Amino acid sequence: MSSEMNQLQPKEILSILEKRFQDHPNRHPKIEWSKIEKSLNSNPKLLQVVTKMEMTGGEPDIIALGKNLYFVDCSKESPKDRRSLCYDQDAWEKRKQHKPSSTVEAEAANIGVELLTENDYLEWQRFGPFDEKTSSWIETPKELRKLGGALFGDHRFGRTFIYHNGADSYYGSRGFRGKIKID
Predict the structure, then answer these.
(1) What pLDDT does 6 receive?
(2) Contacts by residues 39-43 (CB-CB < 8 Å, ≥ 24 positions apart)
(3) Which residues pair with 103 in a beta bridge?
(4) Ranges of the chain with pLDDT below 70
(5) pLDDT score for 10
(6) Residue 25 contacts by C-beta under 8 Å, 6 or more apart in sequence?
(7) Residue 122 phi/psi, 5° resolution?
(8) What is the separation of C-alpha 123 from the centre of its chain, rounded to a whole number of angstroms?
């Protein structure tokens, strides 16, 4: 991943993001690209995170969640380079065989994003549908994690569903999506 990231220059990522922004105005009504571009140019960390989101297949775009603006992964299906991961380190360590290469929490931290919450996922699906063939892990409440479970969502039959699974499970069609707030 890091060698590919070195190949995507700031001017290139800004061009990709601007085109996506223009192609999907319903995701961010009344927001001007110049405001977003200014935020990206004045915040190198934000630009770096959004570049990582792009390089791992997330197709980030601007979405309002609650009262804040975020870059959110808007790829049609769960980002390709972020699949086949169990939920967290504890779940990874408990696997006896066939451990995945990493965990959702570790990869989200590596990219610099927060996982979508259940409310985020449901609100974000207004701009979809997304995850019609895949599913995405979402932030799981601590009480549920203590019991060994984790949450994920998908969109089937014209509806968005939130499910549970053992946190140590992983599938080739389940990844994760992230968000980063725009100041």
Answers:
(1) 53
(2) 39/182, 39/183, 40/14, 41/14, 43/183
(3) 86
(4) 1-7
(5) 87
(6) none
(7) -65, -40
(8) 14
174 DSSP β-pair partners: 135
Q: Is the dihedral of CA 9, 71, 1, 45 positive or negative?
A: positive
Task: Count other C-beta atoms under 10 Å from residue 19's C-beta.
Answer: 10
DSSP state of 112: T
Query: d(Cα 137, Cα 160) in Å, to the nearest integer?
Result: 13
53-82: pLDDT as tens digits: 999 999 999 999 989 999 999 999 999 999
Residue 59, amino acid: E
**What DSSP string describes 18-84?**
HHHHHH-GGGSTT--HHHHHHHHHH-HHHHHHHHHHHHTT--EEEEEETTEEEEEE--SSS-GGG-S
What letter would DSSP give residue 28?
S
Angle at CA of residue 44, ends 41 and 46, nearest 5°: 90
**Residue-range domain boundaries for the chain:** 2-73, 80-177
